[in-house]
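Hi everyone,

Forwarding the result from last night's run.
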Amino acid sequence: MNKRFIIASGGTGGHFYPGFALGRLLNSQGMSVLFVVRKNDPAIQILQDNKLKFREVDFMGFSRGINPLPYFKFIAKLWVALLQMRQVIQDFKPDVCLGTGGYISFPLIFQAHRMGIKTAVHDSNTKIGLANKVCARFADLFLLGLPTNEKIKNTVLTSTPIRSEFAIPVDRKKILKELELNPQQKTVLIFGGSQGAKGLNAAVIQAVKRVVAENQDVHFIHISGERWYQTIKNQYGRTLNVCVLPYSNEIYELLQACDLAICRSGASTLAELIYCRKPALLVPYPYAAANHQYYNAKILQSVGCAVIALERERLEQEIYQFLNRALLVQNDAMLRTMAENYAKLDIPNPLHAADNIAEILKKI
C-alpha cells in the first residue's frame, strides 16, 4: 500500500538531514513524501537536486528577548502558518506527519493532531528543543536520536539517520593520496558544523602548527567552510602536512579515512561518529540553544569515546595537549581504546535508523 508522509524539516543541518535521509528512503520505497520547509530555507536546493516534493510555509522562530514587537510578529506568522499547513494537509492527505525539530514542526504537528492524523516527532539531541517539547503534547510517538532525561511520553530510541553513503567501502590510501597526504601516517580531520566554527578554527590552526613543528609524521585535513577558506589557508601559510578544504560532499569518506576527528557536537555529527566509531575531540558550539551540543558531547565522553574541550581562552592549549597525548606517543593505545569504547553506547546503529523509523511510521 502506498502510504503518504509529510515531513517538516529544515533550518540547521541537525534538523534537516535526519528528515532528508528518511524522506529519501521512503521515496525510494514507493511511498509518497512531501517536505514542509520554512520560506526560503537553504535546504530547498538540496530537495530540488534530489527531486523531492516540498512546500514552503511562512513562519519564524519564537523570540526569547524582551522586545515585544517580535512577539506580535510571531503570533501573526503563527496564524498564517497554521492556515497554510492546514491547506497543505488537506491537499496531500497524509497518513502520518513527522516533525524533525525546529519551529517549522509545530504548525504541522498541531494541525495534523487536530485533524485526526497520526503524528510523530524526532529529536536528535539529548536536550529536547523547545519546539519539540511543545510538539510532544500532540504527538502519538516521540523518536529519540540520543538518550534523554527529559520527561517525554511514548518515546522510542531510534538513533539519528545518517546518509546511506556511509555504507560505501572506503579506500583510505586512495583518498589520502588524492589529498597529497601520506596514508602511512596518522591523519586528523577537523571540521565545524552548519552553525559555524570561527572560534574552533582559530584555536585549531595554532595548535596544529605547534604539533607539525614537533612531529611531521602527523597529517591534518581541515574543512574550513567556504566563508573562511582563504583566511584559514593564509593563516596556515606553508605549514607542512595540512590540507585545507573549503567544503566536502564526501565527509563520509574523510571521516572513515581519518584516525581522529576534531569537531562540533551537533547530533548529526555525533551519529556519524558513532557509526564510524571514530575517536574525537568535541568542541561544542557555545551558542547552541540550551547549550545542547555540550550535553550531546557528554554522552560520548561518559563512555570514553570522546574528550570535550570548551570554546574559551585555553582552547588552543587544550587541543594541543590532547593531540600530544593521542598522536605523539609511540603506540596506538589511546585511540584504539576510544574507538572500542563505542561498544559501551546503547544506541541503535545510525545507518539503520532511517529504515527503523520508516517501519515504525508505517505501523502507527
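The radius of gyration is 21 Å.

Cheers,
N.
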